Structure formats: structure tokens, C-alpha cells
Amino acid sequence: AMRLKTKRAHEEPSHNDGTRILIDRLSPRGVKKAASATDLWLKEIAASDELCKWFGHEPEKWGEFKRRYGRELDGMDDAVKTLMEKAREKTVTLVYTAKDQAHNSAVALKEYIEKKV
Length: 117
Description:
By secondary structure, the protein is α/β, with parallel strands linked by helices. It is built from five helices and four strands. The protein has a four-stranded parallel β-sheet with strand order 1-4-2-3, covered by helices on one side. The longest helix is centred in the middle third of the chain and has 13 residues, at about 60-75. The protein is globular, with a radius of gyration of 13 Å.
């Protein structure tokens, strides 16, 4: 069974987070590396810059963003496999920097992984 969670990089790390994986291309602004307490930085699994610019965190583009990001993820076998293996071992928290907690790449990635299982 997969155990995946999502959490903003600016939120306090918790022992319930398990393995914390930063999934953004850039490190979180205003958060010291130690404070974000990430175990792994999987920047290669991040949505492309072009896709992020197009999306612009506009909720009305959410469905299409998930579809396009899913297509990008289909081509990232190694990164997706790494993430799935870690999530089978123990809880994995996908750490992200977006302010919108409902419409971000961590939520889309979590849904993508859960569909694959």
C-alpha cells in the first residue's frame, strides 16, 4: 500500500511525515534547508517550467494542468519509480512551495501515483 501525503515547505515538519521529498525545481524561498527537513530533493519530477507558467495556479486550469503534468510524468519512469518504491517502504510526504494547497503539483503528483497503483 502507498502512503503519500502532501505538505507545504513552510509548514512545520512532523515525525508523521515519514520520508520528506521536495518535488519542486527550485528550493523554497525563505526556508532554510535544515528547516524544510527534506530527505530527498527529486527536482526532476517537477512539472516543466513551461507548464507551470501556463498554469499560473489558476484553479480553472487545474484539470488541464493535471492532464498535461500526467503526460510529463509518463516520460519520467526513473523518478516515478523511485517515488513509488519509497512510498511502499514507508509514508512519503511530498513537500511543495505553492501557496494554494488544493491546486499544486504535489497534489497532482499524489493523484497520478495513486492511479498507477
